[in-house]
């Protein structure tokens, strides 16, 4: 059990380490946002050792990501110690970043330097397929890969044997890529191993002009394309024009259902700025109470989104406000976890059960704390949206308390919300929970108080000292006769960060 706690602390320490990087100017995003010239970059590089870079950004990845000049990119790529297959983020390399930017000159030079065009990231994307997936690939980037030996007719096993025409068509607004690939002998009627064609790929990107060109060229479409459009592409929510085109021009049935039971509203309901689209499909008779195989309805998904207005729009058509999915989670559970405080209030006012527990025995207080995300101010700058979320947290506590939820009730492991909170490693969360008068010295079923847990996973003394300040007792022992002090002595992170622990004696 200790190993698990220490592993969690080690993961948390990565963010702390990344924060320290920002103190070095050449690793500061603000430096790169100012578009430094080569002279400025040379001055700030100042002996930086690329061989020391493990995970995360370094000067070269920051240069590519911030549209630095090709002279700067080449200069950095020429530095000793660079591993061109190094994991920057989620297994992606410099080449992934350059291709998705898209920066054909950088792609060309990185390939010259030995970057591997077939290298797969953690999501099984090559640099080129990632650019296609991101919707940013252009013809110049494709030609750069072709120059270095890419077989344009190649299919990608990790992408259902799709070829680059399929993977790029959604971003091909002027059909420049598609026409070029067709001139190289690639068929516009290409399909992947699941039978998906160019229309199926393109519809996720929502460009109606591309879809019309594909139809003109005889590419088939089906009812499932409405669901593909609703899913959208990477980090993309489509606009109403593509849905009206599919429903009104191509006569696709608005209530089409996937094999797993989803209708179009399952996918759209929780996305931002989709109010007009949701209203459109409700007017077309799409069922907001339809359950998928996991028991989720569009209304449940909407409750977990940020649009209070959509929850209100759907509410009059809801058959059972306390319906639960296969996990035992309701619309209110979703609203507590990720929705708007106004949605929480509205659901409670309409009879949603504040004392509901999921099938694992977790109540709404658990879900609120478990879904907490620390503000980003401590990790590279403040963020207004994240700070707003923290205000949402307090508002949801007040609403649930008024509805009778007991925040002091033992959790399923016998511990308290403090025990749930320690996994977040954020002292601000404890400060938000403190007014609830939770027993800070309560033990969970493993015989550990929250101070014991904090001693095992903390990377600094901030939470430990705060817990003591609100009454945590240092002398309490675990079932193995360990105190917070003896547990802290075994915490390698505290040792590594030179954190004194004598205050725990």
TrEMBL record:
One Pfam family in the UniProt entry: Ank_2
Keyword Signal on entry: yes
Signal sequence coordinates: 1-17
InterPro entries: Ankyrin_rpt, Ankyrin_rpt-contain_sf, Cul2-RING_E3_ligase_SR
ANK repeats: 90-122, 194-226, 260-293, 327-359, 413-445, 446-479
Stored SMART domains: ANK
Protein keywords: ANK repeat, Signal
Protein name: Ankyrin repeat protein
Species whose genome carries this gene: Flavobacterium nitrogenifigens
């Amino acid at each position: 059990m200790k190993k698990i706690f220490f592993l969690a602390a080690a993961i948390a320490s990565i963010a702390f380490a990344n924060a320290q990087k920002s103190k070095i100017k050449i690793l500061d995003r603000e430096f790169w946002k100012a578009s430094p010239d080569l002279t400025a970059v040379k001055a700030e590089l100042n002996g930086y050792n690329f061989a020391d870079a493990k995970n995360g950004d370094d000067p070269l990845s920051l240069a590519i990501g911030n549209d630095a000049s090709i002279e700067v990119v080449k200069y950095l790529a020429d530095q000793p110690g660079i591993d061109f297959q190094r994991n920057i983020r989620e297994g992606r390399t410099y080449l992934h970043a350059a291709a998705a930017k898209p920066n054909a000159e950088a792609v060309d030079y990185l390939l010259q330097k030995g970057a591997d065009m077939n290298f797969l990231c953690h999501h099984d994307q090559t640099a080129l397929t990632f650019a296609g997936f991101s919707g940013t690939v252009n013809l110049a980037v494709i030609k750069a890969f072709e120059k270095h030996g890419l077989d344009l007719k190649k299919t990608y096993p990790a992408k259902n044997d799709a070829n680059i025409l399929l993977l790029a068509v959604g971003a091909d607004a002027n059909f420049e890529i598609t026409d070029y690939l067709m001139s190289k002998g690639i068929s516009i009627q290409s399909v992947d191993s699941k039978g998906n064609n160019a229309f199926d790929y393109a519809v996720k990107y929502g460009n109606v002009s591309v879809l019309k060109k594909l139809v003109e060229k005889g590419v088939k479409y089906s009812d499932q394309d409405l669901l593909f459009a609703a899913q959208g592409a990477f980090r993309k929510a489509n606009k109403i024009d593509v849905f009206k085109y599919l429903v009104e021009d191509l006569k696709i049935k608005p209530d089409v259902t996937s094999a797993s039971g989803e209708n179009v509203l399952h996918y759209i309901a929780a996305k931002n700025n989709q109010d007009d689209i949701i209203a459109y499909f409700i007017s077309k008779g799409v069922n907001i109470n339809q359950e998928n195989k996991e028991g989720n309805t569009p209304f449940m998904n909407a409750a977990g989104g940020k649009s209070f207005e959509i929850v209100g729009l759907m509410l009059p058509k809801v058959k059972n406000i306390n319906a639960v999915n296969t996990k035992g989670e309701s619309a209110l559970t979703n609203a507590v976890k990720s929705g708007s405080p106004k949605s929480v209030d509205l659901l409670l006012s309409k009879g949603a059960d504040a004392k509901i527990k999921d099938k694992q025995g977790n109540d709404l207080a658990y879900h609120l704390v478990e879904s907490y995300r620390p503000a980003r101010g401590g990790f590279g700058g403040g963020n207004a949206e994240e700070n707003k979320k923290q205000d949402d947290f307090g508002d949801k506590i007040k609403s649930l308390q008024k509805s009778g939820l007991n925040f002091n009730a033992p959790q399923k492991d016998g511990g308290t919300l403090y025990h749930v909170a320690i996994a977040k490693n954020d002292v601000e969360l404890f400060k938000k929970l403190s007014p609830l008068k939770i027993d800070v010295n309560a033990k969970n079923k493993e015989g550990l108080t929250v101070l014991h847990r904090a001693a095992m996973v903390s990377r600094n003394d901030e939470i430990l000292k705060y817990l003591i300040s609100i009454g945590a007792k240092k002398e309490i022992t675990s079932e193995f006769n360990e105190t917070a002090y003896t547990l802290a002595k075994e915490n390698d992170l505290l040792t590594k960060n030179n954190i004194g622990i004598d205050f725990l004696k």
